[in-house]
Amino acid sequence: MIIDKFVESKRPKNGDSNLKSILKTISWRMLGTLDTIFIAYFITGKIQLAISIGSIEVVTKMILYYFHERVWNKINLNYDEGSN
Fold it and tell me: CA 53 → CA 31, 44, 68, distances in Å?
């Protein structure tokens, strides 16, 4: 497909593309936000408060995760297995 070729051509040689990092960010935050809402509801017993907490943290954590992912993508941990 055309989109596959475009995405493939933009992929760096060592690491994920920006698009893949963005998609991973979104999917991880969906799961994480559901968890936050569940915990907030369990603690407070108030669904509206739980949803409010979840809606605030989803934005901040998506931004943090994206930059965290990009920094880790720049770190090269390849080393000789025989050397200390």
Answer: 14, 11, 22
